[in-house]
Amino acid sequence: DAVLDGSLPCPDQTVDDSCGPGTCTVDCSTTAAAKGGVNQTCCSNNPSQPCFPTGPNSLSGQLVRTGTAGTLTPRWPDPLYPKTGAGTVLAATFCLPTVIDTTVDILAGLPGPGAVVMPVTVEVTAQE
Predict the structure, then answer these.
(1) Burial class for 50, CB neighbours closer than 10 Å (0-12, 13-18, 19+)
(2) Residue 70, exposed/middle/buried by CB under 10 A (0-12, 13-18, 19+)?
(3) Lowest pLDDT segment from 12-16, 66-70, 114-118
(4) What is the DSSP string of the chain?
């Protein structure tokens, strides 16, 4: 699991959630993301506005993204290579700095948290 814990987790971040008077409490994981990526949590006052739940009134006050371990085939101790695996998901949370353009910073909620959730296919080859 990747976690940024607590209110205002990023340096120079000035607001939580970017929901204004709403809270970051709506599960919108089944809603298509307007700017690409994956929605997970949205604002209570605008269910199509994605947000990061870092504020004290949010679901948990934490930004959490969870990865998934895949299973390789053929499985060890089988000596055959390459071993491949699908179903692996890499996850990370991080802080994004300001881009020094007020318009971009306001629209993107910067500085503030960012997250990546990436499905990947793994291939393990024998060392020669």
Answers:
(1) buried
(2) middle
(3) 12-16
(4) -EEEESSS-STT---STT-TTS-EEEE-TTSPPTTSS---EEETTEEEEE----STTSSSSEEEE--B----BSPTT---S-EEEEEEEEEEEEEE---S-HHHHHHHT-SEEEEEEEEEEEEE----
Q: Which residue is associated with the tokens 């910073």?
A: 105
pTM, full prediction: 0.63
Tokens of 96: 């994004």
Q: What token pair was written down for 15?
A: 């607001």
